[in-house]
Amino acid sequence: MTIRTLIEDFANKLSSLMEGQALDRARNAVESALGVGARRRGRPPKAASAAIAVIGRKKRKKGPKQLCPVPGCKNPAAPVFGMVCSKHKDLPKAQIKKYREARRAKKLKAK
Fold it and tell me: Helices H, strands E: what count in the chain?
């Protein structure tokens, strides 16, 4: 064996080893970006959990706007005022309760 063949052998082995390491690093980077591969224990990273949550869930449908229970009032009710409008926030709670019961009775009667 000549020195030239030894050097060529060494260079070929070194290049194939470096190629394999580069391929492994690239594979690990792609797997971690896609979330494939070994599972880690504990809470997943925020970006991955957000992507999974968006894929598997429908968009939330908002309920209808709740109106003030006082008869004849068409203003929206607000949780800040105890689910009555700002105009009727000072009414006694007992009176508001009666209005709600009357509305419920009227709704059941209509069905």
Answer: 3, 0
Structure tokens at 58: 């429908």
- Looking at the fold, whether 72 and 32 belong to one and the same domain comes out as no
Which of 99, 61, 105, 62 lies closest to 83 in space, CA to CA?
Answer: 99
What's the structural domain count of the chain?
Answer: 2
- Judgement on whether residues 110 and 71 belong to the same structural domain of the protein: yes
Residue type, 82: G
Question: Could you say which of 52, 76, 91 is where a domain stops?
Answer: 52
Is pLDDT at 32 greater than 70 in this prediction?
yes
Residues 43-100: tens digit of each pLDDT: 766 765 555 555 666 788 888 999 999 999 999 999 999 999 999 999 999 999 999 9
Residue 111 one-letter amino acid = K
Give the structural domain span for 88: 64-111
Is residue 84 exposed (0-12), middle (13-18) or buried (19+ Cβ within 10 Å)? buried
